[in-house]
Specification:
- The structure is a single chain.
- With 112 residues, the chain is α+β, with helices and mostly antiparallel strands.
- The chain has a domain at 36-88: Multidrug-efflux Transporter Regulator, Chain: A, Domain 2 (Orthogonal Bundle), CATH 1.10.1660.
- Helices cover 47% and strands 15% of the residues.
- The protein has helices spanning 10-35, 41-48, 52-60, 77-86, and strands at residues 38-40, 67-69, 72-76, 100-102, 109-111.
- A three-stranded antiparallel sheet has the order 1-3-2. Strands 4-5 form a two-stranded antiparallel sheet.
- Strand 2 (67-69) and strand 3 form a beta hairpin.
- The radius of gyration is 24 Å and the shape is elongated.
Length: 112
């Protein structure tokens, strides 16, 4: 069985080195944030698909718990997940027919 010989240029090796270091750095940042039970504003905006102004309005109205340290806002990861779960939309049932949903604060029945 003949062994194959590969030749790499210095540019190839430098590019590979950059890719490996970027990958390690990105993984390290993810680990660092996931160890914290808090998310920053950018993460919350991405998770909730909202703008920074909408997030600010939610903070002001007290709809979203947060902590501010310096100029940085932190949001409890578990409570953001709970907020998403609590507002999960009702979908169609398996036969594709509509689902009746009664609103909690009034007696209006809606058909979806």
């Amino acid at each position: 069985m003949a062994e194959q010989i590969y030749l790499f240029s210095k540019q190839d090796l430098d590019q590979f080195k950059k890719e490996v270091l970027n990958s390690i750095e990105a993984h390290h940042k993810e680990d660092k944030h996931s160890q914290l039970n808090y998310m920053r504003s950018k993460e919350v905006m991405k998770e909730l698909a909202i703008s920074s102004s909408h997030l600010q309005k939610m903070r002001i109205k007290g709809l979203i718990p947060h902590t501010k340290i310096g100029d940085t806002f932190f949001y409890p990861r578990a409570e953001i997940k709970a907020l998403l779960d609590a507002n999960k939309a009702q979908s169609l049932n398996s036969q594709g027919s509509s689902v009746n949903k009664k609103l909690p604060n009034n007696n209006i029945n809606l058909k979806f």
